[in-house]
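Input.
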Amino acid sequence: MEPAFFNGLPSDVLIVEDDPIIAIDFEDTILGFGVKTVRTATSVARALQIIAHRRPDFALLDVVLARENTFALAEKLDALQIPYVFVTGYGADVQLPATLAGKPRLVKPCSSEALEAALRRRV
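Output.
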């Protein structure tokens, strides 16, 4: 099924973030852009359940969660052709596997403008 986009923005965004304050901030900002649905997961396992239930149109992936990274989830999103962007507080120092090295990244904290641009790019 093709992702739904309205006004250049995804209709349904999945946020994978283990810090509740950052997740709420992302959610509020994204809803403020006019995105219809924002869902949040704090673990890879929960994110996979959400995706199995209903695929998002776009995902924001914190690179490092409490006890895991999101690389396997990114590979699953690639296989499903769901666009995403990594978000990280580690900046350019974050080490991604070679297969994911070229994927888009946002550095936390990021501006609303940068977040909206990432959602509109859908790369």
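The chain is about 35% helix and 20% strand.
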